[in-house]
Amino acid sequence: MNVSLPSRAELLIIYHSMTGGTHQMAQACAQGARADPSVSVVLKHASQTDTDDILRADGYVFATPEYLGSMSGLMKDCFDRTYYPCLERLQGKPYAVMVCAGSDGQGAVKQIERIVTGWRLKAVAPPIIINVRAQTPERILATKQLTESELDPCVELGAMLGAGLGMGMF
Ligand SMILES: Cc1cc2nc3c(=O)[nH]c(=O)nc-3n(C[C@H](O)[C@H](O)[C@H](O)COP(=O)(O)O)c2cc1C
User: Which PROSITE patterns match (predicted)?
Assistant: First the structure.
């Protein structure tokens, strides 16, 4: 007899990072979400994320660095490749945004919010921006090491999304 188990809700965390900060944020978020074993958590680099990944998921975290006042080029490339194939097919799914920035971060948040408004996604948490206080070329290009307390909000965001998806709350 074939017994098909109900499929687990999936949280897709899409990230890009050049000097490590956003990657750590995305990993912390995944760690928080994995506290709920009923949810499948997929952590994917933006360059490896395609339309099928996005269509399959039940909720999203978009994690990007802020570069030159906007999201990173590879994160934008991910939206460029998937925006129209996913249009009208994601209505009402929950999302959150995380940005790692040198001193600002608002530009990247605004851009992502505009794009996913087109997808009719539903924001379920305020954006998280971590500022690494990097404003000289040396500090900007240095590998980032975020502290546990800086990353705590990312873990909490993941836990909230994981629990919410697990319970079918969104
Ligand atoms: C080309 C470039 C442009 C940047 N522009 C901005 C910016 O407009 N605003 C800002 O707050 N930080 C800016 N930064 C700083 C980065 O956001 C910061 O270094 C952050 O750690 C990047 O995330 P990552 O460590 O995940 O790569 C810039 C960094 C680079 C390399």
Answer: FLAVODOXIN_LIKE
Per the CB < 8 A criterion, the answer to whether 9 and 166 are in contact is: yes
Question: Ligand 1 mean position to 72 CA, how many Å?
Answer: 9
Give yes or no for residue 69 CB within 6 A of ligand 1: yes
Question: Is there an atom of ligand 1 within 6 Å of 21 CB?
Answer: yes
Report pLDDT digits (tens) over 119-128: 999 999 999 9
pLDDT at position 7, please? 82
- Tell me how long the chain is: 170
Whole-model pTM above 0.90? yes
Pairing of strands 59-67, 70-71: antiparallel
From ligand 1's centre to the CA of 124, what distance in Å?
25
Which domains does the chain carry? Answer: 9-166 (3.40.50.360)
Assign 4 a pLDDT band (cuts: 50, 70, 90): low
Candidates 122, 117, 126; CA nearest to 59 is: 122
Q: How far is the CA of 137 from the centre of ligand 1 (A)?
A: 10
pLDDT digits (tens, 9 = 90+) for 23-37: 999 999 999 999 999
